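Our consortium's second objective concerns turning raw sequence data into structural hypotheses that experimental partners can test. To show how far this objective has progressed, the report includes one record in full. It was chosen at random from the queue rather than selected for favorable results. The single chain below, 349 residues long, was entered without modification.
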Amino acid sequence: MCHAHASEMMEETDISAEHHDEICRKNCDNHIGFNISKVVAPMVGQSDLPFRLLCRKYGADVCYTEMIFSNLFAESEEYRNETLQTCAEDRPLIVQFCGNDPAILLKAAIYAQPFCDAIDLNLGCPQQRAQEGRYGSYLLDKKEWPLVFETVKTLSNGLTIPVFCKIRLCDKLEDTLEFVRGLQSSGCSAVVVHGRKRGSQKLRRCGAADLAAIRTINDELMIPVISNGNIQVAGDIQICKEETKAAGIMSAEGILHNPSLFSSESGHNLQDVAIEYLNLCEETACPSLDCIRQHLHWMLGKSGHGRTVRYKYPGPFLKHVFLKNAIDTAETIEDFRKIARKCLQNIFV
């Protein structure tokens, strides 16, 4: 199986010459060694190998694994084999870890280093389990900064590949700027900024991402910045580039809905894209049926939860609940193929 990586050359129509020169300078100065223009985000339960390969086929330059627990990865071979499934075509790859112990994070990263191109420290997860485990966005509190900077320095000094940090905005922009300067001084090679604050459990995704804040962070740093947020359709990519001047653009939910989001060509049949994903599941390390179900929910344009669930592409199903039940009770990849063919036959993205 051969999957070509996206070209590392940026088209003139995508970006201004001045912006291109700035990106090149930042990349060269920090020796990242690979293109970070179009990035597939780390997504819980959805960053599986077949999906990463699919996104690469349609223009993604680099993909993340889902967040991996550093303590488990450092100690359990079974967990390592389960969470880091990759292949030769799956490069460049960024492995994301969470944790709060520099030594354990380094041990985990050393295990992962031969199979990836950078290590990312998760400083953005806003979920309650992150608060309970003292990782993710709860390390953005000022009292945790010395630990974070020590961790980044330990990783940077102990690894032969770059160290990235994925963050959210602090409550005050000046605090965010101080924090990212500290990351840069500690050896971080690139910062990924989700342009929202941690917020509450219910409001962590409330509102649009603050692209102006990301632009300010980008202007502040010498290292590259990757912008995360507000990428739902292909047209959002250019808007984000212009407003943030970031070296890279990351998509999460947008690329779950449409894995061909980063493609330089429009008009891909979403049925074909979905079936390509299912084929890759058969050809590579097949994820769980639950993972496949969730991908199909996304590609069919799911919104809402429980009884209020709706789909953008319900196909011949008379009620949304019938389609949901069909996906939830599918037991084979062929079952999923039949659903995709029914619902996505005439959908182009």
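The partners drew two points from this record. Residues 270-344 form one domain. The longest strand covers residues 190-197. Both points have been shared with the crystallography group to help prioritize constructs.
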